[in-house]
Amino acid sequence: MRVGHGAAQLHVLTAEPMGGYADRTDGVQGVLDPLEVHVVTFADDDHRFALIVADLVCVNSDVAGRIHATVGALHVDSCWVAATHTHASPEAGCIPGGSTTPSSLATRLLTAARAATEAAVANEQEATLHPTRVHVAGLAGRRNTVDTPTDIPVDALVVTDERDDVIGTIVVSPVHPTVLPADNSYVSADLSGGIRRALGTGHRWVVVATGAAGNISTRHTRRGRTSSEIDRLGQLVAEQLKIDERLPAPPDQVRIRPPATRVIELEPKKPDEIDSAIRFELDNSRSDERSRVVLEQGRRIAGELAAQARTEPYRVAVQAVGLGSATLVSVPAELFLELGESIRARASAANGPAVIVLGYTNGYLGYLTTGDAPETYETFVSPVRRGSGEHVAEAASTLAQAVGETRSRT
Fold first, then answer.
1. 57, 297, 362, 408: which has the fewest Cβ within 10 Å?
2. Within its chain, how far is the Cα of 316 from the centroid?
3. Tally of CB atoms within 10 A around 348
């Protein structure tokens, strides 16, 4: 298998609206650290797949489709377009159910994606993929509880060349990259950028995508909301990955198993579910001011969903692709960590490919919660009925298992 990497800066415009926080009023005032678009290509004699990751809060299906067509002219047979979900980025049309990408941003994203893909294809070399997983203490936790932070499972694909030297790493972090606060008006890759800086060197590239981060953030672990705190948390990930020390011998590398897709129809919330969110009363004695503000925002967005009175189902496309000793799964939503872990557990087989789940990829549905989740902002603004998350997880795991099983027949 040949692997290549390319990157390009995603330019921003002064004063353009910023996304990520519903109560934001200021547009872009400057650049804290540049937004980037990274592309990794994987190629064999029959197929070339590109993973494109942009420092945006989301990518909607309209711009993902345009990117697919654009990179197709560069001899890319299939691709995924993912967002890191940084909240310190321009507004990209991220509303429950998805929307249209602002025209100027879409054009800039296409330009960066094409440039980065051209570089990746040009840089391809024979390589081996080493999937690994570590649990990082002190990084993040479930943001709507006051429990002690959990050890967060971080996945990585470490790429080595023919001399067994590490040339790059793809990290998938199931953590909201939201160290910077809502009143920040400077663009930044946030936590994803911190992980890239901590792991990257002059001769090694690093790509950071976001996994099942729907209910996971640094809310209870961060010691500040500054660039230095971003770098501290990024260093925690780098210290645990130790890519020079723990490169598991991968199973025999096999050919690329091209992406398989399953489209799922999900019912929109019924009026009674939306009414429950709107009427929910927060226990003020157990909540801080910011939590109360966020809950009020959630109730407002739930009211906007009610006004739409949508009856037709949402169509969600989950995908799985086989890359050497790993199977990647994509979900176009903010799925809860428990759902991502259930996909991995169901799809994994003894001595089979490692399963890595990406969220925020090839579209944006909004939150996919677990059916038993308590009432929170995430359950309020999710556009689909409870139980939808488990439905998606079951379909995704079945698809991933089928793609992984082709490994033994290749």
1. 408
2. 16
3. 17
Helix (H) or strand (E) holding 379: helix 377-381
Which spans in 242-387 are helix H? 271-279, 289-308, 337-347, 377-381
Length of the chain: 410
* Nearest of 56, 52, 158, 163 to residue 113 by alpha carbon: 52
Q: Which two tokens stand for residue 289?
A: 């001011």
User: Which two three-digit tokens encode residue 407?
Assistant: 């490994």
What does the DSSP 8-state code read for residue 258? Answer: E
HEC-encoded secondary structure of 195-233: HHHHHCECCEEEEEEECCCCCEECCCCCCCCCHHHHHHH
SS3 call for 378: helix
147: number of CA atoms within 13 Å, CB side? 11
Integer Cα distance of 345 and 367 in angstroms: 21
pTM recorded for the entire structure: 0.95
pLDDT band at 133 (very low <50, low <70, confident <90, very high): very high
Distance CA(19)–CA(278), nearest Å, equals 23
- HSE (side-chain half, CA atoms, 13 Å) at 284: 3
Q: What average pLDDT does this structure show over 322-338?
A: 96
* Cβ neighbours, 10 Å, residue 111: 15
Q: In whole angstroms, what is the distance from residue 294 CA to residue 296 CA?
A: 5
The 3-state DSSP class for residue 272 equals helix
Judged by DSSP in three states, 389 sits in helix
Which pLDDT tens digit goes with each residue over 144-187? 876 666 899 999 999 999 998 999 999 999 999 999 999 999 99
Q: What is the pLDDT of residue 294?
A: 84
Which range is least confidently modeled, 229-238, 250-259, 265-274, 301-310?
250-259
- DSSP 8-state assignment for residue 149: P
Residue 153: predicted pLDDT = 97
Give the pLDDT confidence score for residue 5 in this predicted structure: 98
Q: Which amino acid is at 16?
A: E
Rounded to whole angstroms, the Cα distance separating 355 from 340 reads: 10
Instruction: Characterize the bridge pairing of strands 128-136 and 152-160.
Output: antiparallel
In this prediction, residue 277 carries a pLDDT of 72
